[in-house]
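[audit] Reproducing an earlier prediction to check determinism. Same input, same settings, fresh worker. If the tokens differ from the archived copy the diff job will pick it up downstream; this log only records the rerun itself.
[audit] input (441 residues):
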Amino acid sequence: MPRAIYVLAMGIFAMVTSEFVVAGLMPQMADGLDVSVPDIGYLITAFAVAMACGGPFLTIAVLKMPQKSALLVLFAVFLAGNVLAATATSYSVMLVARVITGIASQAFFGVSLALCAQLSPPEQRGRAIAVAMNGLMLGTLLGLPLSTVIGGHLGWRAAFWAITVMTVIAALSTIVGVPALERADGGGDVRREAAALRNPRLWLVLSTSTLIIGATFAAFSYFNPILTEVTGFSEGTVPLLLVAYGAATVVGNNIVGRFADRHTLAVLLCGLVLNTFFLTGFALLAHVSVPAVVFMMGIGLVGVTMNPAMITRVHRVGNAGALVNSVHSSFITLGIIIGSAVGGVGINHFGLRAPVWLGVVMAVAGIATLLPELLRGRSHAAAAPGEVAVSGAIAAPGGTVTPAETVAPASAAASASAAVPTGTPAREMYAAGVTPLGDRC
């Protein structure tokens, strides 16, 4: 695996730590800024909305830059926002700071994942994305507790300064460890990258990601009160359980990364089915400590850990460009907003288990969004027994492609008249934007 992938993970770790830091410092920040705890909660919402709505626009602004330069510009914007947060003397200044950092972090994810795809061969993209996404998992596992401890002992401003130091280290590592690559063919052209967004199938794929992450965060957002008020754990035990949950996400992320390339659709289907089971079990048995912890760990294994498979699927249906990645991240953030916000409304009306049942509903809806692709795969297989259908072409068992008809490109960057030549190896099909059905299932 290229060293640069690990460097990208460092940057993602810093961004994710900043995303979650407010959640761990709400009482201290409320006292320091002379506002209520709910007001501090709105900073989390502002960060998420800024990511979802502003991130793609900042991505467009840096789209024509060399990707390494774009990363450094985004580091600078994020750093400015984080320093502003560390020195904020009023709630309004802090709100502006969180909006700036939210927009910058979303754009950073988009450019990082595009570069990750360019640095790795097509058949290893899932594993490369999993390595980069370890920054997300470790941000949850280590970044949040670490910043909370620092803030608890040295004040909430110290936590933001600690994130500033992390950001500087990640930026310097990027200067040294990330090569200055030319953009991939079609990269940097806003029209060509945005053309993929005209594909209706891509929007269905994006909705799957929203539902996967929304289902998980509907439960995750309220683990703390559920574990203390329903399960009966002490407040001192819950952080340890959340660390264990974070460890489960790291394990699950790396497992998914190993299968995401060749079995993308099967991984997503299995993940959603298992998450439905774990969420249902947690909702039913949250009052019993051992099953509650077991089901909670299960949610960690198969929830946000679907990211490598989700991203791989988006790359194949759309493209691996920064804009598509940023829009995909916006849909993921939308899932977080829906899961946490609607879950909170449910608590007011139906009690603490309501968000978990919301997660079950969203997971089942996610399974439904996979059905068209599953049915399409069955129809292709029925049309050509012993062969694998590929977007109108037939991939023979030996791994070569026999053109059944002209192949419509998966990426808008390809020509609309492109066809797969006879004898094309399966691995080259990925580079052309054509996905063998056998690898998607």
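[audit] rerun output stored. Observation attached for the diff report: The mean pLDDT is 82.
[audit] end
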